[in-house]
Design brief:
Layout: E1 5-10, E2 13-19, H1 59-70
Length: about 70
């Protein structure tokens, strides 16, 4: 998220994006991967690796990091 667009990358490639605005607020809700916090919806597959960054990264930086990881 760069203050304008929230992007999701899969294997270093842009998979989805959505317009947004403002800052991401800090909270005490735990980060939940593969489901919704305190809900019955769950991801049925396997999540092998995930990266969360606290600074915006360019599309090129994300792609490069994914390619380096595969070497």
């Amino acid at each position: 998220y760069d203050g304008k667009t929230l992007k999701l990358f899969v294997n270093g490639l842009l998979a989805a994006q959505r317009a947004g605005s403002g800052k991401i607020l800090r909270n005490t809700i735990p980060v939940t991967i593969g489901g919704m916090h305190e809900a019955s919806a769950r991801f049925g597959g396997t999540v092998e690796e995930i990266r969360i960054s606290d600074i915006p990264r360019s599309d090129a930086e994300i792609k490069r990091a994914a390619e380096e990881k595969r070497k």
